[in-house]
Amino acid sequence: MEYKKQNNYFRTALLLAVFSALGPFTVDMYLSSLPEMMNDFNTTASLIQASLTASLLGLGLGQLVAGPLSDVHGRRKPLLISMLLYFLVSIACAFAPNIGMFIVLRFFQGFVASAGLVISRAIVRDCYSGVEMVKFMALLTMISNVAPLISPTAGSAVTTFTSWIGVFIFLGILGLILTGIATWGIKESLHAEQRVPSNFKELLRNYSSLIRDRSFMGYALVNGILFSGVFAYVSGTPFIYQNMYDISPQLFSVLFALNGLGIILGSQLVKWLSEKMDEHRIFRIGLLIAFITTALILIIVLIHGSFITLFLAIFLFAVAIGIIAPVSFTLAMESQGHIAGSAAAVLGSLQFALGAITSPLVGIAGEDSAVPFGITIFMTSILAVIFYITLVRRSSAISRNM
Question: Where is the Major facilitator superfamily (MFS) profile domain (predicted)?
Fold first, then answer.
């Protein structure tokens, strides 16, 4: 009986992780095809890169729509419609007639893909709470973080026997498979009596209540700001590793994957630590590790330290993210069961919005300087600590005094 329960537990996490993985696959899978696409569309590198920005923007904004819709109509119906639309938009991307239309379609592809990210998290809140939610989110984080490791490789594999068009046909087929999973594999987790009224005023009221909730916004901002440090890492390290430390593209891919394993390791530490201490203490441990490691990263780039020390510091920062991500989600969502979709939307959108700010900052001094990267990633930790103290800790102190 216990084995059956564990098996069902893992199956649920695997199904939800597949929907969460749609974001990384949408963003990363075509990266190796960018030079080919620039030639095919007869356009500039900046316009091709704009298609990446458009998909990230769609992923961020789409969550703000998909989350509340799932609070009104339940989780399954919006998820099903979004995956069907993802299939259609992905196929349209494959046959876009020009770069302008491709950029527009990429925005909509990210927009509908966002439903997989936000609704899967809302389902977790519907089904779990407390320590169980911490453990489940740790498992979900571990499985989900396999996607960024394999999506660039999967894209390269597809383009070995076809053009970039095949990548988007593959994504379309993936959307069709997810439509089937949403139809037959996902059960409705938000019953009719638990849903919120369908009107715009109620939507604004829900978002307003979330913004006014100091504890929720504290955890959401800490999570979003630290995750923006991951975007800074993704944007900065290809140039730092290869231009400044002469790392080959092949070795860079391996090191990139190892940092993904760091996030997975952190999420597994959460499962182990949750048996020994409460989630608030685990969160503080993760925040402390993030602060120390980002300070080390800044020092290393300022003195142009050895590559191995820089890599180890970044790896430990990835471990810290793996600890903070599932715990901050649990603590933020604990009291938001009635509007879990909207709450998950705020959490997810903040990551992409703040990541859009940090990504360009790392390159402001050119391709041969790592200083902006070091300053940016350290500032994410400083701001995270400030928001934790001013919002989360102060909110807890006010609650105790009342």
Answer: 12-396
Q: What is the mean pLDDT of the chain?
A: 85
CB < 8 Å & 24+ apart, contacts of 87-92: 87/172, 87/173, 87/175, 87/176, 87/179, 88/172, 88/175, 90/168, 90/169, 90/171, 90/172, 90/174, 90/175, 91/168, 91/169, 91/172
Measured N-to-C along each axis, helices 371-387 and 214-239 cross at an angle, to the nearest 10 degrees, of 170
- The residue written with tokens 């399954």 in the block is 76
Please give the Cα distance from 398 to 402 (Å, whole number).
6
Distance CA 387, CA 385 (A): 6
Among candidates 131, 350, 344, 346, which has minimal Cα distance to 230? 350
Q: Which residue has the higher pLDDT, 362 or 62?
A: 62
The average pLDDT across 27-44 equals 81
Question: Can you tell me the distance from the alpha carbon of 345 to that of 63, in angstroms, rounded to the nearest whole number?
Answer: 5
The Cα-based distances of 158 to 86, 155, 161 in angstroms read 19, 5, 6
What the chain holds in terms of domains, given with CATH numbers, is: 1-189 (1.20.1250.20), 196-402 (1.20.1250.20)
Would you state the structure tokens that stand for residue 236, as one six-digit string?
């900065």
